[in-house]
Amino acid sequence: TQLLEQSPQFLSIQEGENLTVYCNSSSVFSSLQWYRQEPGEGPVLLVTVVTGGEVKKLKRLTFQFGDARKDSSLHITAAQPGDTGLYLCAGGAGGNEKLTFGTGTRLTIIP
Amino acid sequence: NAGVTQTPKFRILKIGQSMTLQCTQDMNHNYMYWYRQDPGMGLKLIYYSVGAGITDKGEVPNGYNVSRSTTEDFPLRLELAAPSQTSVYFCASRRTGDHSGANVLTFGAGSRLTVL
Predict the structure, then answer these.
(1) How far is the CA of B74 from the CAs of A33, B32, B36, B66, B108, in angstroms?
(2) Whether B45 and A92 lie within 8 Å, measured CB to CB
(3) Is the minimum CB–CB distance between B92 and chain A shorter than 8 Å?
(4) Are A33 and B103 an interchain contact pair (Cβ–Cβ within 8 Å)?
């Protein structure tokens, strides 16, 4: 069974601060995705990374896939209240129809 | 374009009752999934389907059944509801293929189920 552990589980910071969320596994994934989920809604895809060492930027969000494709990080610069939500990483194995979801990080940005 | 539609949004069941959560998608996606999400947690896969007529178990299938008679619909049935099945249920779909975006899931808004 592939497991994805996210840390921290909860994070509450002031508006304008920077933060990093981690997603770790002992398994190798062919792709890694990050989703954000707001209350009462389903998760929405933020980014997909597929190459070891890959870095993708989405405005103030920077995503990195580990060289060994076992871990990933999400860095937010100058956090804003609109960044509040549950962040989920999800790993895909080549040829596998199923995604394995991480345990989630609940982020709260205080105005 | 509605995407993935789930009904009902909320439901309260008594122990031992049965019900079906409906899921339909209008994107002609072959793959469909049912997940459950317990409070503050990630998603656990209940069942999935790679096409009409084909279903398979996920991590937590006990107490649930599914069918996939059409590409569009993937209902989830609870036969004998138990308090442990209190959760938020999400249906999702994705298209087939090995493109970089092929693993991207489109989720419904969820169905909140409480079993008392």
Answers:
(1) 24, 7, 15, 7, 12
(2) no
(3) yes
(4) yes
